[in-house]
Amino acid sequence: MDPSDLLSPIESSLFFKKMFQNAELTSVLILDLKGDIVDVNDGFLKTFNYDRGSLIGKNFSLLFTEEDKQKQLPEIELDEAKGSGSSNDENYLVKGDGSLTWVQGESILTEAIQGKQFIIKIVHDIHARKLLEEELLAITEQQDKVIKDHSLFIHTASHDLRSPLSNITGLINQLKEVDDDPAELTLLVKLLDESVKRLKNKLNELAATGREQEGHASAATDIAFQQELEAVLLDLKDEIRDAEAEVIADFSRAPKINFPRKNLKSILQNLVSNAVKFRSDRRPEVRLCTERQGENFILLTVSDNGQGIREKDREKIFRMYQRLNPKIQGSGVGMTLVKRLVENSGGKIELESTFGKGSSFKIFLPSSQ
Asked: Collapsing DSSP states into helix, strand and coil, what is residue 147?
């Protein structure tokens, strides 16, 4: 056998030999076509904490994690290099001390004298860059969430202020028509004063929410469903009265929840308001109940006997500015707000509906109680 058959590219090229031996910042492995390590430079040993004896003659798959071995990444890398002349990879490398580091590698098929083929594998440690990329991605995702939360806050504020402002407008219009009935005037002034107080409370809630969002905090507190529903019914009293609607609630199985107060109120207000708005020719009935779902969730169910929703329209009602019935007054954001408030809290919302008979919204709300 010609001795040159045993020579690797290191021995057959003085230029490559010098580069291979002297490089400190470039990590290089020499593999045969089976993936066994023929040689390794000092740059690799220094960077990845190996000694030469633990690598020479061993298959380079020992540098891969068990998970990557199961995916056959070493074999895929070799086959690609032999088939096309080179291959690139980016994965974890197991260091000599057992720790993992992200690396980027390029495997290049080459020939020594006498046509003997080898694979030169150049490896770059990109762990620091990878961590930075992940950190930047996390920051970007957090910024996206903040933007979405601020957008949700603006829509919620606009939507939730509509009812108390509508009440005040209605009362002012009635005041204009009363000029010779002191008792009626006194009653309207009292009602107007109550509406203004509710509007102030709503503004205070929204201001507090804005402060919470600046600190990215969620002000969860123990609140009673019945108490929040009564506040909602006050805001919606004109709508409920005009529709002659009946609102029936049973919160006995789960009377309280640990949840942001303004979020629960907004959820209740939108669901009850929609149930009244989208009524049929029957007298509207809105039923609310709660029950515990395991240790961490409370199921709030809001049902009505209204128009119902066609199967093809069920997803549309949760889209921003989608209005299924343009004849009914609204902005098309109410159910979008409900869905976002529920999902942002870690809950979920389900819809059951029969067109012409009514709908039932099941809201699974997380609670630490």
From this structure: helix
Domain ranges of the chain: 3-125, 127-217, 219-369
Q: Which candidate, 101, 106, 104, places its Cα nearest to that of 128?
A: 101
Degrees to nearest 5, angle at CA 222 with 154 and 351 = 60
- The gap between the terminal CA atoms of the chain, to the nearest Å, is 81
In the CATH scheme, what architecture does the domain 3-125 have? 2-Layer Sandwich (3.30)
What is the pLDDT at residue 250? Answer: 96
**Class in CATH terms, 127-217:** mainly alpha
Give the sign of the dihedral formed by CA 258, CA 260, CA 261, CA 267. Answer: negative
The DSSP result for 259-283, as a single string, is EEHHHHHHHHHHHHHHHHHT--SSP
Alpha-carbon distance of 163 to 159, in angstroms, equals 8
Question: Could you read off the pLDDT of 96-132 as tens digits, one per residue?
Answer: 999 999 999 889 898 765 678 889 899 988 888 888 8
Task: Name the burial class of residue 178, with classes exposed (0-12), middle (13-18) and buried (19+) by CB atoms within 10 angstroms of its CB.
Answer: middle
Each residue's pLDDT tens digit, 53-77: 999 999 999 999 999 999 999 999 9
